[in-house]
From TrEMBL:
GO terms for biological process: ribosome biogenesis. Belongs to the TRAFAC class TrmE-Era-EngA-EngB-Septin-like GTPase superfamily. EngA (Der) GTPase family. It comes from the Bacteria. The gene is der. InterPro entries: G_ENGA, GTP-bd, GTPase_Der, KH_dom-like, KH_dom-like_a/b, P-loop_NTPase, Small_GTP-bd. GTPase that plays an essential role in the late steps of ribosome biogenesis. GTP 2 binds at residues 181-188, 228-232, 293-296. The keyword Repeat applies. This is GTPase Der. Associates with the 50S ribosomal subunit. GTP 1 binds at residues 8-15, 55-59, 118-121. It comes from Desulfuromonas thiophila.
Length: 436
């Protein structure tokens, strides 16, 4: 998945543009209102080429000097990590010295940059925008993020610049497993444990990508690829000091993974970052296992496990289907449970349910609780079929899909999950109209 980063001075309209590019998110049926989202990262899937969008902004209030330092850091992050940089300029405020400095930084890199002049809402601004040629650039896109002008043109230019989506090269039956979590949560320790475990046959030929170390291994006769984000230590990189970097690294690893092991630090508790990263995995349709590490470091009595589990369930409300494991990478306690669970989850992720079975479930659900009446007629559920795996995806054919409100869709999603489980897997359900 390509990464597109938005950079620019404070107040030029970066977050407005971010939201504009995002548009309506394609809702999952299981779209829990509580999915944690970060305004800084999102998956944009409604255009010809899907991409991950990052807003590098959100500056802390600071002096002019400090501001420049922050802008340099953000631009550096974008240059190092993104496939395309959107440099946003303020068409109302005009060209500033800070813009010139960032432009100079971007010019030194080989990354493609789209210059975007925002707040071009009227003829006056259109005239004034010409001033930005003063940056020594060949062209720019004039937009109004607030009013949606020029956005189509911008999207076309973005898609034209992005590389084509890479084809899956790995063996079709290999399960790709990403180990992610905040710095210091114990990723390296756990990866070493996993690869050294009894039933795991590690392949010494680990590969290195730009953002992770990939270790193939076999477990129970199945091929796995462990994507380890902790492994890469690139000294001197500006972006590495930024907290945003560790999130971005996690997003990139999740893009390549089927199953995500999200590590949580038992001693520190659940953090905002854990929740956003999990929210992204969910939206991306990845299977997920929550691993509470450093369980040895917690003072416990007979209630601690239940209490912590409850906390996890409360905070990760949108992941009621995700297994939660309590482990210690340090002592090895319950680490063996991880691969057992991953194997099970991977099977569910790839599971194909027959249409006959699905329709029995659909009919039973309909009989137990009738669909709502819409415009004087009861909504009819015709039939249901599974259209994809990874994640398990279904289509239900109905006569009037607009008559099925959220709560009924939620009911059906639960009914479909009940007999099949789909442990650790998000499921997608699409509704289609069929005239009869
Ligand atoms: N006239 C006009 N105003 C806009 C446009 N886009 C954004 N704005 C306004 O500009 C202001 C800043 O917008 P934001 O999107 O918060 O800017 P930002 O670059 O994310 O700011 P930071 O978070 O401080 O980096 C807001 O008051 C927006 O309403 C536009 O197209 N036209
Ligand atoms: N008590 C305890 N400490 C642990 C456990 N797992 C890891 N640690 C310690 O936590 C620290 C960080 O562990 P790492 O495995 O390097 O963590 P990481 O997530 O790879 O860290 P980064 O490379 O910074 O992303 C080390 O001091 C480990 O010894 C555990 O289960 N219990």
């Amino acid at each position: 998945m390509s990464v597109v980063a938005i950079v620019g001075r404070p107040n030029v309209g970066k977050s407005t543009l971010f939201n504009r590019l995002l548009g309506e998110r394609k809702a999952l049926v299981e779209d829990f209102p509580g999915v944690t989202r970060d305004r800084n990262y999102a998956l944009v899937t409604r255009h010809a080429k899907p991409f991950t969008l990052i807003d590098t902004g959100g500056f802390e209030p600071a002096s002019e000097d400090r501001m420049l330092v922050q802008m340099r850091e953000q631009s550096q992050l974008a240059i190092e990590e993104a496939d395309l940089v959107l440099f946003v300029l303020d068409g109302r405020a005009g060209l500033t010295p800070a813009d010139e400095e960032v432009a100079a930084l971007l010019r030194q890199s080989t990354k493609p940059v789209l210059y975007v002049v925002n707040k071009v809402d009227g003829p006056q601004q259109e005239q004034a925008a010409a001033e930005f040629y003063g940056l020594g650039i060949e062209s720019f896109v004039a937009i109004s993020a607030e009013h949606g002008q020029g956005i189509n043109d911008l999207v076309n230019q973005i898609c034209a610049q992005l590389p084509p989506a890479p084809r899956e090269t790995a063996a079709a039956d290999q399960v790709r497993l990403a180990v992610i979590g905040r710095p210091n949560v114990g990723k390296s320790s756990l990866v070493n444990r996993l690869l050294g475990a009894e039933r795991v046959v590690a392949n010494p030929e680990a590969g290195t990508t730009r953002d992770s170390i990939d270790s193939p291994f076999r477990y129970n006769g199945k091929d796995f690829l462990l994507i380890d984000t902790a492994g890469i230590r690139r000294k001197g990189r500006v972006s590495q000091k930024l907290e945003k970097y560790s999130v971005l690294q996690a997003l990139k690893a999740m893009d390549r993974a089927h199953v995500v092991l999200l590590l949580i630090d038992a001693a520190e508790g659940i953090t905002e970052q854990d929740l956003t990263v999990a929210g992204y995995a969910y939206e991306r349709g990845r299977a997920l296992v929550l691993v509470v590490n450093k369980w040895d470091a917690v003072a416990k009595d007979h209630r601690t496990l239940n209490q912590f589990t409850q906390q996890v369930r409360d905070q990760f409300k949108f992941l009621p289907f995700a297994p939660v494991l309590f482990v210690s990478a340090l002592t090895g306690q319950r680490v063996a449970k991880i691969m057992e669970t991953v194997e099970q989850v991977a099977n569910e992720f790839n599971r194909k349910v027959s249409t006959a079975e699905l329709n029995r479930v659909l009919q039973a659900a309909e009989a137990a609780h009738q669909p709502p009446i819409f415009q004087g007629k009861r909504v009819k559920l015709f039939y249901m079929t599974q259209t994809a795996v990874r994640p398990p995806s279904f289509v239900i054919f109905v006569n009037r899909q607009e008559g099925l409100h959220f709560s009924y869709r939620r009911y059906l999603a639960n009914k479909i999950r009940e007999p099949f489980g789909f442990l650790g897997c998000p499921i997608r359900i699409e509704y289609r109209d069929r005239v009869r």
